[in-house]
Amino acid sequence: MKRMLLITGSLLGLTAVILGAFGAHGLKESLTPEAVNSFETGVRYQMYHAFLLLLTGTALPLTEKAQKSTFYLILLGVLLFSGSIYLLTTKPLTGIDISAIAWITPIGGALLISAWILITYNFIKYVK
């Protein structure tokens, strides 16, 4: 599980940097400032959770079960939250319209919050 956490955290961080650069240089001329700001929010949250996966795989005193649950909550949360923001904000460029299922954005956010709650709970019960 640690290997999966580290690889996934690294890949999420890598793609966050790539998407951040794309947003900063490739989208500013094509989208409204509000859309670019929203896109950057998706990038920011993806990067925060890339770091959290790296910490979960290396430094946090979590059980294997807690690591696995955290992994899936973060992965699905980032895909739904950040992924939906990317698609919603770039609709004028891509033509992809997911507005009918835009409700997945807050579900992704709830999954990310759940990961933080799980980690907090494990810290509270952790005895060393």
From TrEMBL:
Keywords of the record: Membrane, Transmembrane, Transmembrane helix
Parts of the chain that traverse the membrane: 47-63, 70-88, 100-124
Keyword Aminoacyl-tRNA synthetase attributed: no
Subcellular location: Membrane
GO cellular component: plasma membrane
A Pfam entry, by short name: DUF423
Domain of life: Bacteria
Membrane topology per record: Multi-pass membrane protein
PANTHER family: TRANSMEMBRANE PROTEIN 256 (PTHR43461:SF1)
Similarity comment: family membership: Belongs to the UPF0382 family.
The protein, known as: Putative membrane protein YgdD (TMEM256/DUF423 family)
Species for this entry: Leeuwenhoekiella aestuarii
